[in-house]
Design brief:
The complex is a heterodimer. Chain A is mainly alpha-helical. Chain A has one domain: Orthogonal Bundle (ABC transporter involved in vitamin B12 uptake, BtuC). In chain A, helix 8 packs across helix 10. The radius of gyration of chain A is 20 Å and the shape is globular. By secondary structure, chain B is of the alpha/beta class. In chain B, the strands form five sheets. A six-stranded mixed β-sheet of chain B has the order 10-13-14-7-15-16, with helices on both faces. Chain B starts with a helix and ends with a helix. Classes of the chains: A mainly alpha, B alpha/beta.
Chain lengths: 319, 352
């Protein structure tokens, strides 16, 4: 019967939705009080620029996690895309971003096919490609950074208009694209259905293998964009780019209220989650918190986020 | 293990703690006849040892076998409390549904000279199907009877593309049909209602609407067509009389009967040519069961829907089917024409 839904259930759902908003709010106010420099325009723009790279990948990760999978190779994909962009930056100028994007799509397709066709659990499959792709980057760079000297490329992807980083406008496009794809299209629904119950989705006639591959390709493409922006920001591709990136990306998604168990989630939540992560780093840096101690805090925040969002009824399925 | 074996283990687990009170909720839903009578014997023994037993079931004959007194609930309210010997099954049914004469089997219209829509030829699957051949006409319901593991469920899973044939072939509208996955089956116009609505039929954490449209997302160039989705959902809610305040209600908050109606709506929303039903009314109340029967009949008789109905409920098979295939250890041992009014015992004699 429809009136069986208890008031406690509804309150819990509302509470869960409020947690990310409140956390971000409290963090900002807290840092603002302790360090008034936090609320200056230039600092906020730094936060924005830091968030751009993270958020682009986190949008893609939202689809993968909602779809009931995980991708640990995002940092390596970012590095490969940055490398592809840097290698072609002198010959192709601003269009070298296409190479970065293609590199990301290719890596995503590899992940997707190993996972969906090869039926290797995504946790293992992407742990493997994380190492493999990182090896490819090391092989190409031989440890030395490949710098980007093309001015028009740097102007476009790391320049500013009225003090606002150009990358923020690119992110806006990526964000709108992700939002509509997630909540308005058939693909978005299919991803949610697979994460909600793969067997049900399969027996409902969804083309599971194709949809899963598509969702990894999407993440690859968005990591490609993240790689291009990151390369433009540091003006080079290095072998160390994106190491540990997967933790921040996954934490952003989970902090935004998307449970690791899949089926549910939102793009808006991921935006909040990514800002929580970058405000936390930025604030701790400003307060001069020891870098090692920052690691400890980030780890705890991540565990806490998973603790409150995870659906324990599905716990046997976590990969 | 199949669902029946899991159920038996659950019951054994409950008994292993030496309880003084034991509550059984639809415990026979996935059991076959032999297992049910074994459970009935256990209950009688426990009763004689002084245990108090609460027993919830939609199978009214079971209540007469084991219960001393019974309470009928309807829409969350108590309707009546009586000693079992003071009330007949007919009266119980009427009180449960709230009106009289609900359970009368209507005579089936037999449409003559319909085209054959689906044909199976010598289907073989290791250890479960052995040379199964049959034909299904438009506007026809073919029932499949048999003990658990006799091959009925495997047959449906092969037709929907969840399992692959070892040999034999299938024809859909005269053309070779070889589904490599359910995706392919749905694209060809075949829908499936799985046995377990909670784990296979529905994503219960999703809304009624999201479940019903899952088999065939209404779209305008890749975007979900929300107006169409609402319309489809509302049509099914009216058609099956699904009790809910909103199409966005999560399925987990629905009663078993309403949940099953959503699951059936879901398999119907792509407008299939052939519908595969696996125990469509398992564990649901008489009222919902009756509504489901009527509506399936309506679709078959007024439209051209063809149905393969696998069921452990022999009355259900007799009520709905035009023909019944009786399975035993993967073989069709008998085909019964329902115009000749076969009895339950006749079916059972070919099953065992």
């Amino acid at each position: 019967m429809s009136n069986n839904r208890s008031k406690r259930d509804i309150r819990n759902i509302k509470l869960k939705k409020l947690v990310p908003v409140l956390s971000l709010f409290i963090l900002c106010i807290g840092f603002g009080i302790v360090q008034p420099r936090f609320f200056t325009f230039s600092n906020l723009m730094i936060v924005l620029q830091q968030t751009v790279v993270l958020l682009s990948a986190a949008f893609g990760m939202t689809f993968v996690i909602v779809g009931g999978s995980i991708d640990l190779s995002v940092g390596s994909i970012l590095a490969i895309s940055a490398l592809a962009t840097a290698l072609f930056s002198s010959s192709m100028g601003i269009f070298s971003f296409i190479m970065g994007l293609l590199a990301g799509i290719l890596c995503g397709a590899i992940n997707g096919i190993i996972f969906a066709k090869g039926k290797v659990p995504s946790f293992i499959a992407t742990m493997g490609t994380m190492t493999t792709l990182r090896g490819v980057v090391l092989l190409f760079t031989k440890g030395a950074p490949i710098s980007i000297n093309n001015d028009s490329f740097l102007d476009l992807f790391s320049g500013r208009i009225f003090g606002i980083p150009n990358s923020a406008f690119i992110l806006l496009i990526v964000g709108l694209f992700s939002y509509f794809l997630y909540s308005k299209t058939v693909f978005g629904r299919e991803v949610q259905a697979i994460g909600g119950g793969e067997k049900v989705a399969r027996l409902s006639g969804l083309n599971i293998e194709i949809i899963k591959t598509q969702m990894f390709i999407l993440l690859g493409a968005l990591c490609g964009i993240a790689g291009v922006l990151q390369a433009a920001r540091v003006m080079a591709a290095t072998a160390q780019l994106g190491i540990g990136f997967e933790l921040d990306v996954i934490a952003s998604v989970v902090l935004g209220g998307t449970p690791l168990t899949g089926g549910f989630g939102s793009i808006q939540g991921t935006i909040l989650g990514a800002f929580i992560i970058s405000v936390l780093s930025n604030g701790m840096n400003m307060l001069g918190v020891d870098a090692y101690f920052q690691q400890i805090i980030k780890g705890i925040v991540m565990i806490f986020a998973v603790f409150i969002t995870i659906d324990r009824k599905k716990i046997g399925l976590i990969k | 293990m199949d669902l029946g074996q899991l159920k038996i283990i659950q019951i054994a687990q409950a008994l292993s703690k030496n309880p003084e009170v034991i509550l059984l909720d639809e415990s026979t839903a996935y059991l076959d006849n032999a297992e049910i009578s074994a459970l009935m014997r256990v209950i009688k023994t426990l009763k004689s040892k002084g245990l108090a037993i609460g027993y919830i079931s939609h199978h009214l004959d079971e209540l007469q076998m084991v219960a001393d007194s019974l309470t009928i609930l309807k829409d969350g309210r108590k309707v009546i409390y009586k000693e079992v010997h003071e009330i007949t099954i007919k009266e119980i049914e009427e009180l449960m549904v709230g009106r009289k004469n609900t359970f009368e089997v209507k005579t089936k219209k037999n449409k003559e000279n319909q085209d054959i829509i689906f044909k199976a030829e010598n289907l073989k699957l290791f250890k479960s199907l052995d040379n199964v051949s049959f034909e299904l006409k438009k506007g026809e319901i073919v029932g499949v009877a048999g003990l658990k593991g006799a091959g009925g469920e495997d047959l449906l899973e092969i037709i929907i593309g969840e399992k692959q044939l070892d040999s034999g072939r299938m024809l859909l509208e005269g053309k070779e049909y070889r589904p490599i996955s359910p995706y392919y089956a749905y694209k060809s116009g075949i829908s499936y209602l799985p046995a377990s609505r909670q784990t296979e039929g529905l994503i219960v954490e999703f809304s009624i609407k999201e479940n019903i449209i899952m088999t065939n997302y209404p779209q305008k160039i890749m975007f979900i067509d929300n107006d169409a989705a609402n319309k489809i959902t509302n049509n099914f809610i009216d058609f099956f009389n699904i009790k809910t305040n909103t199409i966005n209600e999560l399925c987990t908050y629905l009663s078993g009967g309403n949940m099953q109606k959503v699951a059936i709506s879901k398999s119907l929303s792509p407008n299939p040519k052939v519908l595969l039903l696996n125990n469509p009314t398992r564990g649901i109340d008489v009222g919902a069961r009756y509504e489901i029967y009527l509506n399936i009949k309506k679709l078959v008789e007024d439209g051209d829907l063809a149905v393969i109905l696998v069921s452990e409920d022999l009355l259900e098979l007799l009520n709905l089917s035009h023909r019944i295939l009786v399975f035993k250890k993967g073989r069709v041992t008998k085909e019964l024409d329902c115009k000749l009014r076969p009895t339950e015992n006749e079916i059972i004699s070919h099953m065992t």
